[in-house]
C-alpha cells in the first residue's frame, strides 16, 4: 500500500457522552462517515455542537461507542500517525524552532543531524527558512502555527486533525495560512479533518463539508465541493461560492447558530 492510499478514516455509529452522573450529556450522536485517503474534510457547525469532541475521539483522547478506524485499524489511543494542530500552539517555549519541529524524530531515536536536516526542509516549505534558531515567543501567531504544521508533518502522519487552527489569527494572516495549508496538503496528500465554525474557511479549504447539528452533534449534511484546485482568493467572491455560503448559513441558522 503506497502512502497515497493510506489515511482512510471510517466512523460508524459513533456516539460520545461527556461528564458523569447528573452532569452527563450526549455530545455526539450516531455519526457515520467514511473519509477517503487524502481527502480534505471540514467539520462545520455551531459552537458547542461536538465538532472538537469528535476530533478528540479521532485523536484517541476520548472514549466513544461505535466504530472508529484508520486504515481498518481501530483507534485505541493517541498515535503519531494522527497529527494534531490546535488553535493555540503547543510548542516548547524553551526549544528553538528547529528543535521543536525535529522533536518527533528525536523521540524515534533518529540522529541529530538527520532530524535537523528534515526539520530545516519542512521549515523552508512552510516559509520559515532563516527562523530555525528563533524561539516560539519571538514569532507572530501565524508563524507559530507554521512551526506547528511543520512539527506535525515531520512524523509523516496518515491523518492530520486540526481544531480551528487559524481561529486566533487576524483576517489577512488567516487567508495566507489557508493558502499555505492547501499548498502543503497538495504536496503531501495527507487526509485532513479540519474543525471550523467559519463558513468561508470551510468552503475555501474542503473537498467535503460535514455540517453538524446543535448538541447532540449529528451530521445533517454531507456537502461535496467541486471548486477547482488550486484555489485562490478570487473563489471567495464567485457566484457558486456565494450560493453555497447562503445554503450553509441557512443550515446553521436552523441550528440556532
Secondary structure layout plus pairing:
Elements: E1 9-18, E2 25-35, E3 40-44, H1 51-59, E4 65-70, E5 73-74, E6 82-85, H2 97-107, H3 112-125, H4 141-153, E7 159-163, H5 171-188, E8 191-196, H6 199-205, E9 208-212, E10 219-224, H7 239-254
Parallel strand pairs: 3-8, 3-9, 6-7, 7-8
Antiparallel strand pairs: 1-2, 1-4, 4-5, 9-10
Helix pairs in contact: 2-3, 2-4, 3-4, 4-5
- The CATH homologous superfamily of the largest domain is called P-loop containing nucleotide triphosphate hydrolases
* Major sheet description: 6 strands, mixed
The total count of strands amounts to 10
Overall CATH architecture of the largest domain: 3-Layer(aba) Sandwich
Large-scale geometry:
globular
Low-confidence stretches: none
Instruction: List the helices and strands in order.
Output: EEEHEEEHHHEHEHEEH
